[in-house]
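Final report, results section. Input specification for complex C-07:
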Amino acid sequence: MAESQSLVAHHFSTLEQEHDAETMGMWVFLATEVLFFGGLFSVYTVYRVIFPGAWDAGSRILDLNLGTLNTAVLLGSSLTMALALHAAKLGNRRTMVFFLLVTASLGTLFLGVKGFEYYHKYTEHLLPGLGFQLPNGMPVQVGLFLRMYFVMTALHAFHLFVGIGLVLVLAVFGWRGKFTPLKHSPVELIGLYWHFVDIVWIFLFPLLYLIDRS
Amino acid sequence: MSQETTSSVRTLILSFLALMVLLALTVWGSFIDVGAWRATVAVVVAIAKALIVMIFFMHLKGSNRLIWTVAGAGFVWLSFLLILTIGDFVTRVPIGPGP
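Structure output:
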């Protein structure tokens, strides 16, 4: 009893109360993030309603194979993040660090593929601001679609970049034995953030890549 | 306390496989011409994927009602943002010159 009480921060009565407060705090932060991305999704939807033809044409410019690959990579990273938390709860330090490193690697692979896609768009003169030139016959609003594509995916990539940094910090602390089956909230909370970033991509992928392939 | 919020490894792997099936389904479905339903199908599949991630990976399953409420609130606010904004744009009609 005395041992478990010393684990609790002084402003909480029990570990369970502390855990609930931390988890709720993270979910509140994620709710603000939902609205942050929600603003961009609203702009996207309004322009899609006004310029449906340009959105159809724009989605066909994007590389479906790379987009699908990246979706699979990110879904896989959510699995390994969940497995890392599972290992943390069981106190398997090595397994947890292994899965955290796999998670960070998959996130980095995603960013690499994304960077390749950006570079490819740049060489095709489709990166707004840098020698931007639409192919002949394309509706001019395809430029608007591409701007939405770059802003939304870049904001998502930035979130993922932050997530990779946080997961690597977890791996270092985990390796030093900072997490125990009773006390491992950072793994759980950063895991929630990681899964949220995954969910944003789950919506970005069909809305950007899959509008009109038929 | 921690055991009840833990999804088993089997559940996690099954969730991942379900996500992969839905990914294949949504990519395959995008090649079929279903006209105006295309966006609806894509968004419904995305919502299904998001729910799997939230319930099993973010372990809403096993969380208390408070967490469910906070998690749901984010999406209720998002629905206000989207429904009111889109409702405006799809109901606008051209009006003639004034008197």
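The first helix of chain B runs from residue 9 to 29. Residues 1-5 of chain B have pLDDT under 50 and may be disordered. This concludes the modelling results for the funded period.
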